[in-house]
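Task 17 of the worksheet. Students: predict the tertiary structure of the chain below and write it out as structure tokens. Keep your answer in the requested format; marks are given for formatting as well as content.
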Amino acid sequence: MAQSVLGNLTLGFRPLWGRSRMLAGVRLFVHEDGDGVDGQHLLRVLAELRAAESPELLLSLHSRHLLADMLLHAGAADPVIEVPLEWLGDARVRSGVIGARARGARLVSRGEAPAAAVGDLARCFERRIVSLSAIDAGTALRAGQRARESAAVGRLPPRAEGSPVTPNCIVEGVASRALVEHALDQQGAWAVAGWPAEDALHRYAGQPLPPSRRAIVQAMNALDDEPSLDRIEQLIGEEPSLAYRLLVHLNSAGLGLRSGISSLRHGFMMLGFRSLNAWLAEQLPQATDDADLRPVNATMVLRGHLMEHLMDAGIEDDLRREVYLCGLFAQLDLVQDEPLRVSLGRVPLSERIAAAVMSASGPYAPSLEAALALESEDPRPLRAVRERHGLAAEDVNRALLRTLST
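Model answer:
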């Protein structure tokens, strides 16, 4: 039965970024591909595929029937459930909210509804999702500016009055760094849904992204502790700009290595930990402490791990690492701010990676297309990818949930 639950759904996701610009949770979009999906069975599958260290999961259900069914069974240990306020007119949803809250389930409200329609149910929700329109965004920025001007003339800098962004909420529709700062830093929002990557990258226009100082220091500290290859590969492989710089260095003429180095692990073995530590130290003067780059990098890392799970059917470790690099470097043009063909031409990555990234062809292309399509609330692109490549909904959904569990 559990297999048929995931086989009748199209899932998607959007990261939720907290005040530290780290992953605070994941909003999981759930679309039914047929009628009769059992909410209790879905909750059971989600519990089986989650671990203690998994990020907070917020279920955004696009079926009123499925929402009512899940509210009927949800408890304190289950993921947070999003409830559209406009659906409270449905008696099943309304009674489900009351019953779920009584069992300790965690609920989040979304949308607008008259106060009279919500009534006492308002206290059932631990926070709400605020969706910013263009007008709302302008109102928020003006309110934030007024608050900063008040602080500039000696008064305490209060939270901005008149802003649609309220403390402890989740904000979607944040299209600029200024709005991120207003929501997270000034108003105390719990998280923003998605990230304004283009605006975060704008300050580096015309130059490659600098690596994170935090990532470099972590890797250097780990090297001092005589770590395993797996640990060093994880630390450097989770910083796209650093991983790419290292591959370029490993294949530079001055280093004099005989054969092309196409994987980080091979590079570590050829270079040695002492030389690697020295190279990392040389990167520190060019490193950045810009926290707004963390979500950009983490999204690329998440895509790489998602591709690993999408292609997990018996592939060897070396191929798994190659698949991960394919996902990590799928948007290398953003990291380097140059055409992909130029960046990929500097390192001897496999033809399979180049084909998938450059021309959406080859054996890795279906997984890369699926991974990119999963990063959306709209189920139609993913359904088209599944149909085009013969991917089973069960396999794609399970790959996503396994990725989010770690």
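Marker's comment: The first strand starts at residue 9 and ends at 17. Strands lie at 9-17, 23-32, 56-61, 80-84, 107-110, 127-131, 170-172, 191-193.
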